[in-house]
Amino acid sequence: MNAPIAAAATRKADPVGKPWPSPKLDQGLEKTFLNIEDLRQGAKRRLPRGVFEFIDRGSEDENSLRDNRASFQRIKLRNRVMVDVSVRSTQCELFGKPASMPLAIAPTGAAGLAWYEGELELAKAAARAGVPFALATPSLTAIERIATVEEGRKWFQLYMWRDRELSHALVKRARDAGFELLVVTGDTPVSPIREYNRRNGFNSPFNFNATIVADVATSPRWTWGVLRHYLMNGGMPKQAHYPDDAKGRQIRMSGGAEVLRGDDLNWSDIARLRDIWKGPILVKGVHRPDDAARAVAEGCEGIVISNHGGRNLDTAVASLDVLPEIVAEVGGKTAVIVDSGIRRGGDILKAIALGATAVLSGRPTLYGAAVAGERGAVHALALLRRELETSMAYTGAATVSEISPKSLWLPPRA
Ligand SMILES: Cc1cc2nc3c(=O)[nH]c(=O)nc-3n(C[C@H](O)[C@H](O)[C@H](O)COP(=O)(O)O)c2cc1C
């Protein structure tokens, strides 16, 4: 056994000596859902149009949404021949703890609309799959409820509010509930422009209007399986962490609750958060090397290169396209995580080969959860893991640390 494989073998146990879980394909679901696109189609069939489009679509002309996929497709893989890859592992360490692959579930507000208490399903799925789960500030399930999932690693994502006391209180709740890492999202100073939400009647928090009533009426499985449970357990689905007077109101929209505005977030906030949060802090939404360098200077343990899955600033650059220059600036000094557009395990390999520490995955597990809750989300993770392992084998990498830039063919620069 060569040295990297031996290293991977030693990572097969978590710090307390239990075997670290790895996502298993669900044989029942695999009859219908062979890849993430199949799960996406399943989610489309099941969810009301407004909810599906909220999850699936982008902002304005959706250039970034399309380019996220194109950026992965532009880069090609090279076979590596005549290498023994008979013992393979996708396991790695993320922030000092083992993970079954270099991936964490991205924070997604309103995962609870995909499935009843969808965030809880995602947290359970992540624990079963051996990857971290990031809970979003606007989630419908509260921090303390997520903490009831004893196994697994939990991260908390912060949208900083104008009222810092409220935000800091939320961060303290996450800390006290045992969350290990804080993701500060820096790429959403104002609400994005999502025209389809105006047309399809979708609102956040979810509420009824004529368009949504018609939509819900034609989505019986969702109405029965998701909405009915909320109505029987306290009423319409609402953001669990918002202060009571803001809970039922439009969020982060112009004219929305003033205390929840986040357009004054700045670097000095990191130092203030550091007084509360002793674990790693990541800044999410970074595109510029100078911002990445500033995050390092502020002592952040990582950055997330992201265009929010094409949901915020349209024509924002695809993460993969700026990854090399950011790795050149801060690689080795801080963790460089990438998201937006990952739909195949080969995409994960490309990001790692270009120098990423790990990736976040947003929609794939939401599609999975919309189809079959925790089971569906585990299945999505298992599909990605199988594809990653397959791509590793073809490119001659038996372990994550053997994934090499030499495996890539990069398009000539225009
Ligand atoms: C429905 C939905 C809600 C999201 N909500 C949040 C959020 O509350 N906070 C945040 O930082 N990112 C949020 N994101 C962005 C994700 O964290 C992540 O950056 C993005 O989904 C990655 O792209 P992908 O979906 O193509 O994997 C959301 C994404 C989706 C799809």
Any overview of this molecule?
The chain is an alpha/beta fold. It folds into two domains: 3-185 and 256-409, Alpha-Beta Barrel (TIM Barrel); 197-247, no CATH class. 42% of the residues lie in helices and 11% in strands. It is built from 17 helices and twelve strands. The protein has helices at residues 3-10, 27-30, 36-46, 49-56, 63-74, 118-129, 143-146, 164-176, 195-200, 210-217, 220-232, 244-247, 268-276, 289-297, 319-330, 345-353, 363-394, and strands at 76-77, 92-94, 97-99, 103-105, 133-135, 154-158, 181-185, 281-286, 302-305, 335-338, 358-361, 408-409. The protein has an eight-stranded parallel β-sheet. Strand 10 (335-338), helix 16 (345-353) and strand 11 form a beta-alpha-beta unit. Helix 6 (118-129) runs parallel beside helix 17 (363-394) and helix 16 (345-353) crosses helix 17 (363-394). The longest helix is centred in the C-terminal third of the chain and has 32 residues, at 363-394. The relative contact order is 0.20. Flavin mononucleotide (FMN) is lined by residues 54-55, 68, 106-110, 136-138, 157, 185, 284, 306, 308-309, 311, 339-342, 360-363.
How would you sum up this structure in a few lines?
With 414 residues, the chain is of the alpha/beta class. The protein has helices spanning 3-10, 27-30, 36-46, 49-56, 63-74, 118-129, 143-146, 164-176, 195-200, 210-217, 220-232, 244-247, 268-276, 289-297, 319-330, 345-353, 363-394, and strands at 76-77, 92-94, 97-99, 103-105, 133-135, 154-158, 181-185, 281-286, 302-305, 335-338, 358-361, 408-409. A hairpin with a 2-residue loop joins strand 2 (92-94) and strand 3.
